[in-house]
Amino acid sequence: MTHKNSLILPSGGLILLGGLLGVVPADIVGQTPAPLFNQLLTLLANPNVAYLLLVLGLLGLAAEVVTGGTVISGIVGVICLILALFGLGQLPTNWAGAALIFASIIMFLLDLHISGFALSVGGLIAFALGSALLFSPPWRLPVEGAAVGISPWLIVLTTGGVAAFFLLAIAAVVKSRSAPVVVGRRTLIGQTGTVQEALDPRGIVHIGGETWSAVSTAGTIATGATVRVVGVKGLTLSVVPDDATTDMVDEGA
Length: 253
Prior knowledge:
This protein is an alpha+beta fold. It is built from 7 helices and 8 strands, in the order βββαααααααβββββ. The chain has helices at 26-29, 36-44, 47-67, 71-89, 95-111, 118-133, 152-178, and strands at 7-9, 14-17, 20-23, 192-197, 202-207, 210-216, 226-233, 236-241. α3 runs antiparallel to α4 (71-89) and α3 runs parallel beside α7. The model is unreliable at 1-21 and 247-253 (pLDDT under 50).
């Protein structure tokens, strides 16, 4: 509690309280809050924070490469990488560990374009080793003072997160490769199919793995007969018996 007659003299560390003169320790007198910028620099020099920024930066750039056009992920990735490099520069960084982490992301990205999971397995191993070797390994006992290192739990969680990220990306790529190719309606001209509902002259046909409304230009065609597409108008096909000789036309949308 401050008395109305109290007086603090920072230069000499003296305090006058109620007529009594006392001495305040110099470290308390001169103590002032650190500027916000200095606190930020201290935070960036934390090994766990620098490691997370490095991983997030690489994942942001990887997402930019995979999606091809998501500008936000690329910007965030670059910013995180710059901050991570600043933090790593203030710490006793083992750059071989950083190189392993970078190489692991490259292997993950290459595996998106190559069949199999060999590169992903190698990338996962490289990422875990690089994370452990980035600073003082968890298994190394400190020699002088406290060793600088990353929390082992953080390494485990981050490795699992990176593996999940690229597993989802690989699954999406595999799914897109196995999906049927969507073709334009004009490519249907000349294809053959089967009549599912008799054409008189309108009916239903099954062509190219899909069911279409169709109009016969050669009279009635019975169910089960084989027909050939000779024209397309909107979502309706013009068909003739497969053995018929008819000029093929595209009547447009």
